[in-house]
Design brief:
Layout: H1 2-12, H2 17-32, H3 34-51, H4 56-105, H5 108-113, H6 116-124, H7 126-157, H8 159-168, H9 170-206, H10 208-213, H11 217-269, H12 275-316, E1 338-346, E2 352-361, E3 366-371, H13 377-384, E4 392-397, E5 400-401, H14 407-413, E6 414-417, H15 428-433, H16 441-450, H17 454-459, H18 477-490, E7 495-499, H19 507-520, E8 525-529, H20 533-536, E9 541-545, E10 551-554, H21 556-562, H22 564-570
Parallel strand pairs: 3-8, 3-9, 6-7, 7-8
Antiparallel strand pairs: 1-2, 1-4, 4-5, 9-10
Helix pairs in contact: 1-12, 2-4, 2-7, 3-4, 3-12, 4-7, 6-9, 7-8, 7-12, 8-11, 9-11, 9-12, 11-12, 16-18
The structure holds adenosine-5'-triphosphate (ATP) and magnesium ion (MG).
Adenosine-5'-triphosphate (ATP) binds next to helix 13.
């Protein structure tokens, strides 16, 4: 019954035009299949009304009808294929659109809990959903209709033979249910295995440098092949059940026809059935049998499809944890006054990072955060960007709880450059403008100038149009960081955050960048996180995180005077 619930929930997610189009498609299927439906009846007419009584004009009459029905059904078959293809494209677009929209609505934590490979596999799996909605489901409906029609005609032509067949038909259903129950767990495993394979190959391709540098090719190849073999084993297991299903279905249908044929022969000999009716009834019963057989294959398909549906609905029915709450307000330009009030935060592993933290970061200032690796500097920023939410307390921006601000507006006002540049495989220009529609070339160049990139870009043959390759492999890490920094600057944010954003840049260039940036952002809020003293020491205020939610704050001179840990932290840097 879980299947039914899944299918019901899936149909609710389809666009409203789907029902009408499906009815149209089923009607087309029925009309295009009409020749097959009436041909046994035509045979009966040929035999009983033309051949046995040697009536040539009746023979011609039946032939003209037969030809007309044949041509019509061929035309309708072509029309059915055109309609089906159109529907397939439209529905796939609609499902992918909904699915991707849903995907993007999830919080960062969701993506950290699932591999890229698995998510890609899920997206590719939408083809199965589309095929189900446009091909398999309408076929199931049309076959069920045909079953009813063929059953009616068969009953009309030969009541005893049809009832005889019906009495034997539960054999098909019992056998199909059995096969479906066996196949369901195998298909579930197969899906998981497919996801793992996709994850493995994605991971390997994206870490090729390490694989090459460490000579890990054989290790990776074997690991992939091992997973692939596991997948093939499951495939063979499901294939065995499929073969058994087809063998049993075919054996059952032949056995049933054999018995029905014997029974029909006995009826003719006893004079209770004409030869024409017998021939027509047999042809209809063959159709009836093959429809029952085909429906039994549908059960096998349902077992496979429902696993795919489960994975699809898992995403579609989940709700993002971080989203706009009802009544969330829009935001114009912000000052950048940040307050943490009694904030407690832990990641999923339940290790508390901040406990009852109180902290004020004033606006319109050049602020710095320093502290030992792992003490929670980036976590603090994640909370300001509302990438995560505190389990207790609140984070305020300009006096407003972040949860009351529309997420898009919040993130429009804040730009971040992180240690990991995470650039896209497009040109330098597109990486810097990154989604900004009205940005001018001058603004892009200005951002690049502040990030000390312009000279480098000018020397490139294609300048700003240079493509930087997968994972920006054509750039050094320091250059990548500067492109990422230019991207953040180009957004002209009210609050700019640099989280060790230029840690791979040489010290001289870093100093130049910080100088230019400070001049540019004189009356704006900026937060710098760095392990380098010179990047921190001139800040209007420095927050020194000591772990366990202990924070010391002040200017460099004040901290030097009052905090031993601060002195120890920077003591080996020449600047002291
Ligand atoms: N997504 C996450 N899930 C679980 N734990 C995390 C996650 N991100 C960070 N942590 C943990 O939270 C703690 C603080 O991490 P955070 O990245 O904020 O440190 P940091 O001060 O920025 O360190 P660094 O100077 O090395 O960048 C660390 O113990 C880290 O392992
Ligand atoms: Mg960090």
């Amino acid at each position: 019954m879980a299947y039914l619930k899944n299918f019901k929930s899936f149909f609710k997610k389809l666009p409203p035009y789907y029902t009408k189009q499906i009815i149209f498609l089923v009607l087309l299927k029925l009309v295009s299949g009409s020749f097959l439906l009436v041909s046994p009846f035509l045979s009966k007419l040929y035999m009983d009304d033309a051949f046995l009584v040697k009536n040539f004009s009746k023979f011609l009459h039946i032939s003209v009808w037969g030809a007309a029905i044949f041509i019509l059904s061929a035309l309708f078959l072509a029309l059915e294929n055109i309609v089906k293809n159109k529907m397939m494209i439209k529905l796939k677009l609609s499902l992918v659109n909904k699915f991707i929209r849903k995907f993007y609505s999830f919080e960062l934590e969701f993506f950290q809990s699932k591999s890229v490979g698995e998510n890609t596999y899920r997206l590719a799996d939408i083809d199965v959903q589309t095929d189900f909605a446009v091909e398999q489901f309408p076929r199931f409906l049309a076959e069920s209709f045909k079953l009813v029609i063929v059953l009616g005609v068969s009953l009309w032509i030969s009541l005893p033979m049809t009832i005889f067949l019906l009495l034997l038909s539960p054999l098909f259903l019992i056998h199909s249910f059995y096969i479906q129950r066996k196949l369901s767990p195998i298909y579930r495993e197969l899906w998981k295995c497919g996801g793992k394979l996709s994850k493995k190959i994605h991971e390997a391709f994206s870490k090729m440098l390490i694989i090459k540098a460490f000579g890990l090719e054989p290790y990776q190849r074997h690991a992939y092949l091992r997973s692939l073999i596991g997948n093939i084993r499951l495939g063979i297991k499901s294939f065995r059940w499929s073969v058994l299903n087809s063998l049993n279905s075919s054996f059952l249908s032949k056995a049933v026809y054999g018995i029905v044929t014997l029974f029909g022969g006995w009826l003719i000999i006893k004079g209770r059935l004409t030869i024409g009716s017998y021939a027509a009834a047999m042809l209809y019963l063959v159709q009836l049998g093959s429809l029952l057989e085909s429906l039994s294959y549908r059960f096998e398909y349902i077992a496979k499809e429902s696993v795919s549906l489960e994975r699809f609905l898992e995403i579609m029915d989940s709700q993002p944890k971080i989203k706009d709450l009802p009544g969330a307000r829009s935001l114009g330009a912000i000052k950048g006054f940040i307050q943490f009030k009694n904030v407690t935060f832990e990641y999923q592993q339940k290790k508390i990072i901040f406990k009852e933290l109180d902290l004020d970061i004033p606006p319109y200032a050049w602020m710095a955060i320093a502290g030992l690796s792992g003490c929670g500097k980036s976590t603090l920023i994640n909370l300001i960007l509302r990438l995560y939410e505190p389990s207790q307390g609140e984070v305020l921006l300009d006096g407003m709880d972040l949860r009351t601000i529309r997420l898009n507006d919040l993130r429009k006002n804040i730009a971040i450059a992180t240690q990991q540049p995470l650039l896209f495989d497009v040109s330098i220009r597109e990486n810097i403008s990154c989604g900004l529609k009205n940005i001018t070339q001058e603004e892009i160049e200005e951002a690049a100038r502040i990030a000390c990139l312009d000279n480098y870009i000018k020397e490139l043959p294609q300048g700003y149009d240079t493509l930087i390759g997968e994972d920006a492999c054509l750039l050094s890490h320091g250059l990548k960081q500067r492109v990422a920094l230019a991207r953040a600057i180009a957004r002209k944010p009210c609050l700019l955050i640099l989280d060790e954003a230029i840690s791979s840049v040489d010290v001289l260039t870093e100093e130049k960048i910080l100088l230019a940036l400070r001049q540019k952002r004189r009356s704006l809020s900026t937060i710098i996180i760095s392990h380098r003293l010179f990047a921190v020491k001139d800040a209007d205020r420095i927050y020194f995180l000591k772990g366990n939610s202990m924070i010391e704050e002040g200017t460099h001179a004040e901290l030097m005077a009052k905090s031993q840990s601060y002195c120890d932290f920077f003591k080996n840097q020449n600047y002291i």
